[in-house]
Structures are given as C-alpha cells and as structure tokens.
Amino acid sequence: MGEYFTSPAFKPIEQVEDDYKDLVRELPRFDGVAATNLLGGLLTLPQFDANQIRLETLLKLAHRHGRGKNVPTRKRLQHWLNHSLSGGSVRTAEDPPEDVFVANVMCGVGNMRVFTGTWENCDSLLQDAPVALNTLPRTNLVRSLMREAEALLLLSEETASCNDGLRVAGKPRNRFLFHRKQF
C-alpha cells in the first residue's frame, strides 16, 4: 500500500485519490512544486487554520500528481478548494480549531513559535528534541544536529512573525477567498 495520508482518519492516499478522481485527473497539467509552495504558504495564515485538512489534502495531491508546467492561479486554487474538495470526507472532517495555531518551543536561541497544524500537543513533543540533544555529549554530530534543529525553529519563528503569530485562529470557512496581496 502507498504512503498514508495524515487526515482525515488516516486514510491511505489511494482512497483519498478515489474520492476526488476529477481533481486527480486535472492536477498533472500543473506544476506540483509551485502548487505546494502556494498551498504551504496558505497553511501559515491563521484565517485558514480550521481549513487545514482541505489545504493539506490539496497540497499532497498536487505534490503527488502535479507534473506539468502551469502554475495554479488564485482562481484555480479557489476552484479546487471550494468546488473540487467541497464534499466528501475531507470537507466533513473540518471543524473549528480546538487548540492554538502556533505554539512555543524553547531552544538555545530563544523561545520559538511553531505551527501546530492539525497535530495536537506537537509543541511538547517537539520540545523533547532540543532537550534530548542537550543531554548528549557535545560531539561534532550533536552540535551539528542542534544547529540544524535551531535553524528550522528560527525559520518557523520568522514565518510566524510575518503573520503576527496569532495564537488562536478563527472558525472554519466554507469558501476560500484569496486577495491579491496573498499572492
């Protein structure tokens, strides 16, 4: 069986593809890297926190099937999110956020904000990584791993600062509407 899809209900990606065959047939005309970059950026916007399952679904399908040269437009993304993914298990799995949009992780360079996504308590699990690395002998490998972990946390902090790092997001949106300044 193929890679597992993280949501909804940990369905295998093949089952998700079967649920959205028309979308899967359309995606090969589009550049999967460009699509995933755009969708990844949308995942950092607090107003779409409650819609992360739909965004993640489209991101994973676009990455898996996007082989073309066309860059998806704002209108195309809206169509996919509002129409192609408007029904089925993905749409019904969306609910209001029950947790925070960003959380905090402490490391050697300070208090860093991380995006929680659809993962509950990911900040406490992530906090274990720098703590564990700090308990190991200071070898070159451990120092390198710590620098890489801190660099990723700094990247997340910088991304959060661009969005004012709101801690709690809003209610689910039935429709995605993107403004020119978001692209």
Biggest β-sheet: strands ordered side by side in the sheet: 1-2
Runs in which pLDDT lies below 50 for 5 or more consecutive residues are none
What's the Cα radius of gyration?
18 Å
How far apart the termini lie comes to: 36 Å
Q: Report the principal-axis shape.
A: elongated
| Tally of individual helices | 8
Q: Total number of β-strand segments?
A: 2
Task: Kindly estimate the percentage of residues that lie in beta strands according to DSSP.
Answer: 5-15%
Average pLDDT confidence is 81
**Domains (count):** 2
Major pleated sheet: 2 strands, antiparallel
Task: Tell me what you see in this structure.
With 183 residues, this protein is mainly alpha-helical. The chain has 2 domains: 13-95, no CATH class; 102-162, no CATH class. The chain has 8 helices and 2 strands; from the N terminus they run ααααααββαα. The protein has a two-stranded antiparallel sheet with strand order 1-2. α3 (32-42) packs antiparallel against α4 and α7 (122-135) runs antiparallel to α8 (140-162). 27% of the residues are buried.
Summarize this, please?
It is built from 8 helices and 2 strands. With 183 residues, it is mainly alpha-helical.
Topology:
Layout: H1 13-19, H2 21-26, H3 32-42, H4 52-65, H5 74-84, H6 88-92, E1 102-107, E2 110-115, H7 122-135, H8 140-162
Antiparallel strand pairs: 1-2
Helix pairs in contact: 3-4, 7-8
Task: Name some characteristics of this structure.
mainly alpha, two-stranded antiparallel ribbon, 183 residues
